[in-house]
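Hey,
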Amino acid sequence: MLQLIIDWLIYYVFGLNPGSKLSGVINFFLYDSTKILLLLFFMMAVIGLVRTYISQNKVKSWITKKKAFGNLFASVFGSITPFCSCSSIPIFLSFLEVGIPLGVTFSFLITSPLVNQYLVIVMLGFFGWKVTLLYVLSGILIGVFSGIVLGRLGLEKYLIRRLVSDNNQSVEEKVYKNFKERIVFGLDEAKTITKKLWVWVLLGVGIGAFIHNYVPQETIHGIINKTGPFSVPLATILGVPMYGSCVAIVPIALILFRKGVPLGTALAFMMATAALSFPEAVILRRAMKLQLIAIFFGVTTVAIIITGYLFNMFQSMF
């Protein structure tokens, strides 16, 4: 139905030529941006409702007590929090406050931006459930194993203790009187997040629409052929300085994939953009020394590269 409405607007109301590249860009842009924004709002409202039943204080307490499963739980918890790499840092610091091991807190810090709700929603709309599910699982595993590695290196000496705030007290959480208040919270959160992300959605879809219709597939193939087996680490390194909302990167990654870029290479670029950024490093400098930031970035980068190669290896299965 949506596609029929868009076709009617483009070809009958505005009279554009169905075979032109311009009409292709507009069609792609209108359809995908509308679909993603509607899906984003609906899913954020549902997830916001569910989050009213989750206590942050209980989560902290559980992670502290269940040390054997701490990395896994922190990684899973990070995957359901709607934060970018910079927004995850306050919770990361609060976890350190209550005595949660450094490696466990890193599992959260890595997974939270790497696998978040709106990224998963956008990926569902573009890549389908199989690739999205494998992406989510790989993101959680990256957080778990990277956190375990970082935790065993004894890096606590690189933390700047004086910047640890006095958040030892429990966070005051809102009490909901009835189900209606929970629904209102979910809708309000959906509105807030959609307002913050709609520009990034339009930007990402717009770039994707341009690449899809104007960049020849042979050009993409030529770039990939020149880089060969180094395409995954190159894509990962290029993704780090390109800080921005992941919803703007997903459609670009999809178009690169459709143009012939291996799936793992495209996803590695997206992972690096979501999980690592220069602004994140600057903010982390307030809480840790440069050595720890470098090790954190290095371990996470290696994990993303390995994951990219695995996706490329098993790409025929998707």
